[in-house]
Automatic annotation (TrEMBL):
It comes from Gossypium tomentosum. Residues 1-26, 51-98 are annotated as: Disordered. Residues 442-559 form the Protease Do-like PDZ domain. Belongs to the peptidase S1C family. This is Protease Do-like PDZ domain-containing protein. Residues 344-435 form the PDZ domain.
Length: 589
């Protein structure tokens, strides 16, 4: 007996389980020819496929069928969607009509059309509204905040909506210096203006002042939230070619997802259509040609294939309506509590819950939440806006589906109120809670604001943010950063809206700071016995200090004392940049 061969793909090299955002760097053109060809073969082009299908159908006349021949590779699909073998089928020569949106229309159809082919055909009229986004990024250097990194270019996708606006992903235009758009079939790039960037939901809104850009293009219409197994078609400009491409699949899952760029959790769609680098910001259409989402990230793992994620229409409409209502993006609000599941029956009895009562227990309350004084730890949330919360923190979603109750909160807008029913000491209480955006002690983003810093006697003070940790310790900062910083990042809550975690980032070596060269990323707790609330308060205290010595109380019971001839400090928020030589000349001359 011959050797048994297992079906399936060859094992890959180990890869990290990460969800990656997909926009195409210009440097991707340096990929090997093999990678380029492989990527090209993964791209399905609606126009090319339609022309090829028309040519094949015209060639295979009923009276002169082609000879049976088995080709290499997989059997090709027939129009009915099944795997076609060597036996050809007889068909009358189709009648050609003029090109419409880049595709040849064949009539009459000789066989039923597969579902995914039907979706692609209906999407064709809306494909003209899909644009290619070119962006030049210039990121701040968070480790050396007085300068910026070298600029780089990227390309991604976007689409035109009503009101002469364009939607794309926020990470596609993050730290933008210049944004340009190019329509399908055009050779002109138009300068774009960024109207709003929604970091949490990873959506950005653009516009173009040149009226020529909007000529001959109909805006994309939005559809309802799709159901499981509904067909979707992702359109965009991914790596592997310069023209528009289409990938098709179905909705595999609908749930609360982790948005990598936004460091938050919102409603999302999982699809099995390929989402590659450059697809970011492209629309996902249903079988009616309506947009049901925006492609934004994919799962890269050795055991996973073709797992892509799409921002659904409820999140998109929240972003658009927020901008229209407030003239700017204000964000997605939160309830401001951490909660615990109540699935254990003994825990429910201990909390005074009856057999017909369900809910979740409040563990902690954000001190910065507007109504933090109303709710208390150990309160049991029974319902939110009249919707009962289960013991596992879920609420009814659609038929046969449940979803985390944070979805109800995310449907609200900043400043809205919600009716929250809680159980406290076996009594049911109701509160009108005002909702606000999340104030993190260590912000996940800086909202395109350059990092602030303060320097005195070579000590570089700055506020800790996630971009700063990523700059210092790389993408695996959650494993490599100091434990105390990680503990504050994951668990600490801000006591006030202006509180910051201030650290000594580094010490620029000079005679005045001998012996302090090894202080790196150490938190500053107090200055001359007064607590340090934020970077601005530290700068004010140092500038107004008349004592002989400057004493900085650091974590790990460290103390730094300096005798500094004032004024010898520099406080900047990077409204302008300075070179390292200029810094040294200012500080130590």
């Amino acid at each position: 007996m011959g050797e048994t061969r297992k079906r399936g793909r060859k094992p890959k090299a180990p890869a990290s389980t990460t969800e990656t955002m997909d926009f195409q760097y210009t440097s991707a053109s340096n990929a090997t020819q093999t990678d380029y060809v492989a990527a090209q073969n993964d791209v399905f082009s609606a126009a090319n496929d339609s022309v090829a299908t028309a040519a094949a159908a015209a060639k295979n006349d009923a009276n002169n069928p082609p000879p049976a021949r088995r080709g290499r590779g997989r059997p090709r699909k027939s129009e009915a969607g099944h795997m076609e073998d060597t036996e050809p089928h007889a068909a009358a020569s189709p009648e050609r009509r003029p090109y419409q949106n880049g595709a040849v229309v064949l009539e009459p159809p000789t066989q039923p059309v597969a579902k995914w082919e039907s979706v692609a055909a209906r999407v064709v009229p809306a494909m003209d509204a899909v644009v290619k986004v070119f962006c030049v990024h210039t990121e701040p250097n968070y480790s050396l905040p007085w300068q910026r990194k070298r600029q780089y270019s990227s390309s991604s996708s976007g689409f035109i909506i009503g009101g002469k606006r364009v939607l794309t992903n926020a990470h596609s235009v993050e730290h933008y210096t210049q944004v340009k758009l190019k329509k399908r079939g055009s050779d002109t790039k138009y300068l774009a203006t960024v109207l709003a960037i929604g970091t949490e939901c990873d959506i950005a809104m653009l516009t173009v002042s040149d009226d020529e850009f909007w000529e001959g293009v109909s805006p994309v219409e939005f559809g309802d939230l799709p159901a499981l197994q509904d067909a979707v078609t992702v359109v965009g400009y991914p790596i592997g070619g310069d023209t528009i491409s289409v990938t098709s699949g179905v909705v595999s899952r609908i749930e609360i997802l982790s948005y990598v760029h936004g460091s938050t959790e919102l409603l999302g769609l999982q699809i099995d259509a390929a989402i590659n680098s450059g697809n970011s910001g492209g629309p996902a259409f249903n079988d009616k040609g309506n947009c049901v989402g925006i492609a934004f990230q994919s799962l890269k793992h050795e055991d996973a294939e073709n797992i892509g994620y799409v921002i659904p229409t409820p999140v998109i409409m929240h972003f658009i309506q927020d901008y229209e209502k407030n003239g700017a993006y204000t964000g997605f609000p939160i309830l401001g509590v951490e909660w615990q599941k109540m699935e254990n029956p003994d825990l429910r009895l201990a909390m005074g819950m009856k057999s017909d009562q369900k809910g979740v227990r409040i563990r902690r309350i954000e001190p910065t939440a507007p109504e933090s004084h109303l709710l208390k730890p150990s309160d049991v949330i029974l319902s939110f806006d009249g919707v009962k919360v289960a013991n596992d923190g879920t609420v009814p979603f659609r038929h046969g589906e449940r979803i985390g109750f944070s979805y109800l909160v995310s449907q609200k807008y900043t400043g809205d109120t919600a009716l929250v029913k809680v159980l406290r000491d076996s009594k049911i209480l109701e509160f009108d809670i005002k909702l606000a955006t999340h104030k993190r002690l260590i912000p996940a983003h800086t909202s395109a604001i350059p990092p602030s810093y303060y320097i005195i006697a070579g000590f570089v003070f700055t506020a800790v943010t996630v971009p700063y940790l990523r700059s210092e310790y790389g993408k695996d900062y959650e494993f490599d950063a100091p434990v105390k910083l990680l503990d504050k990042h994951l668990h600490a809550m801000a006591e006030s809206t202006d509180e910051q975690l201030v650290v000594i980032s580094q010490v620029l070596v000079a005679d005045i700071n001998i012996g302090y060269e090894d202080i790196v990323n150490t938190q500053v707790l107090a200055f001359n016995g007064k607590p340090v609330k934020n970077l601005k308060s530290l700068a004010n205290m140092v500038d107004n200090c008349n004592d002989e010595y400057l004493r900085f109380d650091l974590e790990y019971q460290q103390v730094s004392s300096l005798s500094v001839p004032l004024p010898l400090s520099l406080s900047l928020s990077l409204s302008h940049t300075h070179t390292v030589d200029e810094m040294y000349n200012f500080l130590f001359s």
